Design the sequence.
């Protein structure tokens, strides 16, 4: 049986859970968020991605109620959040530093939010037990935060912020303090918990791999503006700008200008070289400046000239052996560098290509992404 | 460990002698049987008995404790509030002036503080006594409390309070349930500092007191002017003992807490590894 695809953003009948409407946030003269609108839907795992200082944390803090927008409106569940303090919002937040209360035990930390709701004691106990089970912390209930490991602290912070069953959970760089292996495990754990509880998650991160892995949609931000909002695969395969293409994953950007238009464009990119061909739905005119973005894994490396359209000669300058794949840094005829990757699908200790090899590289028309300037 | 050289031993001996010889002599002579404080006349505890029969000393001790308790408590409340504003509220008009004025009594000569308070009380027509001493001690002790508490607040993770707000606390309950318990050690040491400062203050008390109230330092000072009685030695020995016991007690407690914390962290590391 086919599982229906989760894509509420494509369904006009869906009402978004969170709406940013022309929100601007200024700190003095500094514009942190510049007139942005954004819709986030129920049950989404939404990532705000960007370098530090891009405004992603400000977006999150405005949702939590720690900052007020200078202009515009934020709606949660259709309700205007203007003037609603953090303690009265159906929102909880998991802090980057976890912000666990050091004077309270793990149990008391998780119960803290429930106590403030004035629930009866047996109900609080039941809910805390449930949260402890969900995050596999039952053994540590009596410990203080400094008596448990970093990974366990992270889970306590998650349990505490989920205990009040918020409509929306905000996660500020939730995995930043964990080492790589633990981070990868925890990513899947987060996705699992998100699915089990059915809570809408909004995660702030500067780690594009993390955003790609966990989220249903990503908003890539830069200097207070949202550049692109789309699913991870669209962000990766069809970025809408050089910024997004460059920020997400590894890419080679080639500058050029349009020689001939059509569904498959011919692009001049270097003196005396044949034009590169790229299929694109964009409407560009002849002579217009543009960029071609090519992901390294889309580039094939050959010993002799292949039959493909985009075939270029070059020389391998650097080889990065990463075990599962090898990355080549190839200098093209015009001195520009191109990155190519090949998967090491067979067990060979001797590499097919190595330093100073003269090679041909090629890719198909559909693998290159054409971007307007 | 490096072995002690002769130079180190000498330096240590001279240093300690400089600090503690006077106190040691005072304590030894408190057990002197004779009336003359400078001539040893056999071991006796009679001056301790004398001390506890002297009503003036007992009254003064009681006034001192009352003043110290009240003044240090007021100073702690006010000093903590001032520290919160100074650390938390980033910039506001007059911030520099405000912080300067909070810390001014630290460097102000006591005589001037005392005199200015005296003039204030006279011009307001306040009856001088225990109440005015408490006010005066609160004034100069709160800046010490504020220094101690604000140095703790600077390292306090602001997100803890935000987390409390996020989990349903009003600003006041976030302070009461999260901030206060965490900064409690600093608040308590601020209180202790204020208490000891109030306990041994002579100058400001002398300026702001009236005929009805005499504190222990004032009583000691005036009785020494009439001639040093071995009773004073006995009293001083008691005071030094109390302070020493308190200091040793708190440092043992702090050390134990540190050892426990370290053990816990090692246990946590093992649980992960």
Sequence:
């Amino acid at each position: 049986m086919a599982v229906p695809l989760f894509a509420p953003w494509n369904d006009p009948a869906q009402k978004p859970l969170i709406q940013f409407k022309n929100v601007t946030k200024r700190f003095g003269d500094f514009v942190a968020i510049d007139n942005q609108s954004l819709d986030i839907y129920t049950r989404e795992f939404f990532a705000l991605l960007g370098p530090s200082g891009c405004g992603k944390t400000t977006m999150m803090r405005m949702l939590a109620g720690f900052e007020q927008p200078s202009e515009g409106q934020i709606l949660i569940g259709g309700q205007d959040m203007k003037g609603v303090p953090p303690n009265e919002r159906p929102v909880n937040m998991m802090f980057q530093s976890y912000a666990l209360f050091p004077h309270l035990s793990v149990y008391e930390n998780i119960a803290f939010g429930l106590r403030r709701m004035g629930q009866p004691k047996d109900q609080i106990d039941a809910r805390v037990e449930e949260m402890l089970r969900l995050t596999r912390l039952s053994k540590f209930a009596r410990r203080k935060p400094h008596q448990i490991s970093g990974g366990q602290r992270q889970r306590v912070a998650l349990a505490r912020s989920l205990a009040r069953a918020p409509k929306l959970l905000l996660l500020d760089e939730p995995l930043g303090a964990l080492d790589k292996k633990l981070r990868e495990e925890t990513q899947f754990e987060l996705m699992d918990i998100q699915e089990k509880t059915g809570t809408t998650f909004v995660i702030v991160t500067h780690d594009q791999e993390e955003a790609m892995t966990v989220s249903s949609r990503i908003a890539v931000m830069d200097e207070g503006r949202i550049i692109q909002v789309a699913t991870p695969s669209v962000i990766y395969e069809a970025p809408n700008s050089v910024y997004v293409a460059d920020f997400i994953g590894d890419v080679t950007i080639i500058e050029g200008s349009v020689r001939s238009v059509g569904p498959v464009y011919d692009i001049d990119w270097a003196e005396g070289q044949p034009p590169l061909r790229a299929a694109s739905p964009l409407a560009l005119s002849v002579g217009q400046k543009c960029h071609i973005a090519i992901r390294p894994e889309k580039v094939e490396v050959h010993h002799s000239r292949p039959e493909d359209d985009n075939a270029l000669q070059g020389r391998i300058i650097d080889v990065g052996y990463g075990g599962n794949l090898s990355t080549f840094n190839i200098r093209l005829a015009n001195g520009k560098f191109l990155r190519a990757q090949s998967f090491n699908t067979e067990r060979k200790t001797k590499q097919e290509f190595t330093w100073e090899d003269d090679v041909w590289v090629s890719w198909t028309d559909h693998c290159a992404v054409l971007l307007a300037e | 460990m490096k072995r002690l050289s002769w130079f180190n031993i000498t330096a240590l001996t001279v240093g300690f002698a400089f600090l503690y010889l006077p106190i040691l002599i005072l304590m030894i002579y408190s057990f002197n049987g004779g009336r003359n404080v400078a001539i040893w006349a056999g071991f006796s505890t009679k001056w301790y008995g004398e001390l506890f029969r002297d009503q003036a000393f007992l009254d003064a001790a009681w006034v001192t404790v009352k003043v110290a308790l009240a003044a240090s408590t007021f100073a702690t409340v006010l000093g903590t509030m001032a520290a919160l504003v100074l650390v938390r509220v980033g910039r506001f008009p007059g911030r520099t002036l405000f912080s300067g004025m909070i810390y001014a009594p630290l460097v102000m000569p006591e005589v001037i503080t005392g005199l200015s308070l005296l003039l204030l009380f006279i011009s307001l027509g306040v009856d001088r006594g225990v109440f005015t001493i408490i006010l005066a001690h609160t004034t100069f002790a709160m800046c010490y409390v504020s220094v101690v508490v604000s140095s703790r607040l600077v390292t306090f993770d602001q997100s803890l309070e935000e987390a409390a707000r996020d989990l349903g606390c009003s600003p006041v309950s976030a302070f009461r349930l999260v901030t206060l318990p965490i900064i409690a050690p600093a608040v308590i040491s601020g209180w202790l500092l204020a208490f000891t400062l109030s306990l041994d203050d002579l100058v400001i008390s002398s300026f702001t007191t009236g005929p009805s109230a005499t504190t222990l330092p004032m009583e000691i000072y005036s009785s020494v002017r009439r001639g040093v009685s071995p009773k004073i030695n006995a009293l001083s020995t008691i005071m030094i003992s109390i302070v020493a016991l308190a200091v040793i007690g708190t440092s043992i407690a702090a050390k134990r807490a540190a050892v426990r914390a370290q053990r816990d962290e090692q246990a946590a590391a093992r649980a992960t590894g």
